[in-house]
TrEMBL record:
Stored InterPro entries: Rossmann-like_a/b/a_fold (IPR014729), Universal_stress_UspA (IPR006015), UspA (IPR006016)
Highest rank taxon of the organism: Bacteria
Family: Belongs to the universal stress protein A family.
Transmembrane segments annotated in the record for this chain: none
CDD domains xref list: USP-like (cd00293)
Protein name (record): Universal stress protein
Residues making up the signal peptide according to the UniProt record: none
Domain UspA: 7-142, 152-285
Length: 286
């Protein structure tokens, strides 16, 4: 378990999305009264084990990394002056380094797109190796997404695996003084939809509402000052969550963490939400 003063760890490669991630991490750390650790990873020579890097290549990469970290630290303190910022230039594989740092962090924040390295693609191999695998929350931010929003949204699917996501979402709503929208979207497979199924659909709606209220009850007691909106809708979860993301400050989804392959652990809903959401997304593992 991380210490109560464990830092918010954010990775940067100097790209616009990484800068947005740094700003998001700094703002969240300020709300939590925690330090920020900004990490830049210099990957090993990428052209095969039989090839040697040109003379001076490693020094040039380290110098470039130092510049990236300096700019990232400036971006963090410009918006949140006075925050405790530490930088680290690390060597190795980005996913491995960030997973290690996340083990003792309050949360891990990464950019969704970038010019290379860990942020080369929104759903590249490194993102899939982190979201759903790392203990706690991995927050993915894209350029233009670090601004304020109206509410914190959390996806509720009725499973007990979502408790960690609910806890993270309630805490984020408390820190921000924001409304928490708990959204449950359900849909009936086509083979079960018949002309006389209106009564069954109504029953499913009532049952989903009951389950959502049941899942939220203990968290409402723990956070009595949070305004909670329960929304149960008939539709695909990805579409419903993406629709509300446009006005959200943060969208929180759970990860079951059942397997060893990123795409399996993350799950199709969380993976597609990461792809299409218009606000930062936190993937929270139990």
């Amino acid at each position: 378990m991380p210490e109560p003063t464990a830092p918010v760890v954010v990775a940067t490669d100097g790209s616009p999305s990484a800068t947005a991630a740094v700003r998001w991490a700094a703002a969240d750390a300020a709300r939590r009264a925690l330090p920020v650790l900004i990490v830049h990873v210099v990957e090993r020579w990428p052209y095969g084990i039989s090839a040697f890097p040109p003379q001076g290549w490693q020094d040039a990469m380290a110098e470039a990394g130092d510049r990236v970290l300096t700019e990232a630290a400036q971006a963090a303190t410009e918006r949140t002056p006075g925050i405790d910022v530490t930088t680290e230039l690390a060597g190795g594989t980005p996913a491995d380094v960030l997973r290690e740092r996340a083990a003792t962090a309050t949360e891990l924040v990464i950019g969704g797109r970038g010019t290379g390295g860990f942020a080369g693609a929104l759903l590249g191999s490194t993102v899939l190796r982190l979201a759903g695998h790392v203990r706690g929350a991995v927050v993915v931010v894209r350029a233009g997404q670090d601004g304020p929003g109206e509410e914190v949204v959390v996806g509720v699917d009725g499973s007990t695996d979502g408790a960690a996501a609910l806890g993270f979402a309630f805490e984020q709503a408390r820190l921000r003084g924001a409304v928490l929208r708990a959204l449950c979207a359900w849909h009936v497979p086509l083979r079960t939809v018949m002309p006389d199924s209106a009564h069954d659909v109504t029953g499913i709606q009532r049952e989903q509402q009951r389950v959502v209220s049941e899942r939220l009850a203990p968290w409402r007691e723990m956070y009595p000052g949070i305004e909670v909106v329960e929304e149960v809708t008939h539709g695909h979860p990805v579409s419903a969550l993406t629709d509300v993301s446009g006005r959200a400050a943060l969208l929180v989804v759970g990860s079951r963490g059942l397997g060893a392959v990123g795409s399996v652990v993350l799950g199709s809903v969380s993976r597609d939400v990461l792809q299409h959401a218009r606000c930062p997304v936190a993937v929270v593992r139990p």
